[in-house]
Each structure stands twice: as C-alpha cells, then as structure tokens.
Design goal:
The chain is α+β, with helices and mostly antiparallel strands. It is 54% helix and 20% strand. The strands form two sheets. Strands 4-3-2-1-5 form a five-stranded antiparallel β-sheet.
C-alpha cells in the first residue's frame, strides 16, 4: 500500500516545474555573479583612474595613492560580494531583505564578541592609512618580518621579502613599524686597512673615490659621501669610515658602489687590504708524527 502511494506520488509530481525552477535559479545566480564581476571591475577601473592615472592631474603622491587604492579595492570586493550573496539568498529562500539584514546585524553583533581580532585588524588598517605609517612601495620592518609593502588591505598587509617570500601580516598585530623609506637614509661603509699602511694615503684615495661616486649618483644623494677618518683600532687593522645620506632605498646601492670603487682604487695605488691567513696541514704527516 505504501509502495503504491509512493509510486503514485512520484508519477504525479510536476518534475517539469521543478526543473524550470532549478534552471531559473541557476540562471539568476549566474547573472548575479556576472553583474558582481562587472561591478567589481568597473569599481577597480574608476578607482585606478581617480588615484593612479598618470595622464591626469594627481591629487596624491604615488605611494599614498597606491595605498588608498589597495584599501578601497579590498573594501569594494567585500561590499560587492556581500551584496551578491544577499540577492542570491533572497531569491533562493524568498527572504525579506530587511529581515535578512536585521538578522545579519544581530548575527554580526553576536559574532563580534567572538571575532575581536578581526575588528582589531580592520581598525588597525584604518589607523595605518590615516596616520600614514607606511605606503605601498615602502621598505619596512615590523616584528620579525621585513620587506617591501605590496598591498595594504582592510584586514592584512602584504610584505615581499628580499628572498621573494610573501609575509601576510594581520593589521591588528602591527604594533611597531620601522620605515626605511621615509626621509634621508644613511649609507655607511667601514674599510679595514692594515696598521703598516699609510693611513693618510688611504684616506686621500677614499676621498677621491667619494667625490667620483657622488657625481655618478647625482640626485640620488642628499649629503655626498665623506671620509670620517679612523673610527676603530681592531686586532690587526685600522677601520676607516665613509658616510653619506641618500634618497629612500638608495643607501644599499651606494654602499655597494663605494666598496667596489674603494677596493679597485686601493689595488691601483698598491694599498693592501686585510688578508686572512689560511694554514694547510698535512693530515698524513700529522698522523704519522
């Protein structure tokens, strides 16, 4: 009897209507996703035109514009995604939008007590932006991580390390930042010279190199390289120091160039640089003895 009733119900069910309902829902979801994707692309295009377009007059400097663009792009993604989800749920389950939003608000308050770290990350992101702690393109260090800022989102900051590693750091955990891309940066080079060399001659050669490198680097240098003189007496060598101040992120390349040219000039002038003594022993002789 039950089997007969189930068979009759199965045959009497309007499968065509169910199929049309499923098809209409799938078409609606696909349309919502397409519209959301187009809206996101349009938002990114408009933000890029307003903040990053080099053809028009820019209201902000490049790094500040990149930082604001990164943050607004993150906010646009979350807003459009949330709106799309609301419309899909409303279509599938016939929810009233006001009731759904009210429920979402209550749920958000409930989840807020359990997701304080998320709220902390968002607030931290806004403080980073408005206090201008760092911008996209700056080289910074926070805690044990350092690198170039690639993106500052509403929740996390992305740092690209020199080795290529990408560090994703929640904004709420950024309590202290060392920014190496603000103001003039110091380039410092210490050169060791053996005690039996003529220090006056060595410093004169270094001074000539500093003048040449200062001309080559041009506007990258704020204060030209100068020879500070003897700053330390080591165990076997005297330490001479060269110091300069450069534009942000140019200090390392200046240090490398100073070392290279000073070494070449010392070779030409016959000034020796420290050498390590390597002692090679004969293990067969030592074992036989």
């Amino acid at each position: 009897m039950n089997s007969l009733w189930i068979n009759n119900s199965f045959l009497d069910f309007d499968w065509q209507k169910l199929g049309m309902t499923i098809l209409n829902s799938l078409i609606y979801i696909v349309l919502v996703l397409i519209i959301a994707r187009v809206a996101y692309g349009l938002a990114i295009y408009l933000l890029r035109r307003m903040l990053l377009d080099h053809r028009g007059k820019k209201l902000l400097d490049e790094r500040k514009a990149n930082t604001i663009f990164s943050l607004l792009k993150s906010m646009a993604f979350y807003l459009i995604a949330f709106t799309a989800i609301i419309h899909v749920l409303k279509h599938l389950f016939s929810f009233d939008t006001g009731t759904l939003l009210a429920s979402a608000s209550v749920l958000g308050v409930a989840l807020g007590f359990g997701s304080q770290s998320l709220v902390k990350d968002i607030i931290g992101g806004f403080f980073i932006l408005f206090e201008d702690q760092f911008s996209v393109g700056d080289y910074v260090q926070t805690g044990q991580f350092s690198g170039v800022v690639e993106e500052t989102g509403i929740r996390a900051t992305h740092l690209r390390d020199w080795g290529g590693e990408l560090h994703i750091i929640p904004n709420g955990s950024i309590t202290a930042v060392t920014n190496y891309s603000r103001g003039k940066m110091r380039a410092l080079v210490d050169i060791q010279v053996p005690y039996d060399e003529d220090l006056d001659k060595a410093m004169a050669v270094m001074h000539t190199v500093c003048e040449q490198v200062g001309i080559e680097f041009g506007d990258k240098i704020i204060d030209p390289p100068t020879v500070q003189g003897v700053i330390q007496f080591g165990e076997r060598n005297t330490v001479l120091r060269v110091i300069a101040f450069t534009q942000p992120n140019e200090q390392w390349s200046l240090e490398r160039e100073l070392r290279r040219q000073i070494h070449s000039a010392f070779l030409k002038e016959g000034i020796r640089t420290p050498q390590q003594n390597v002692f090679v022993t004969n293990p067969i002789k030592d074992s036989s003895g």
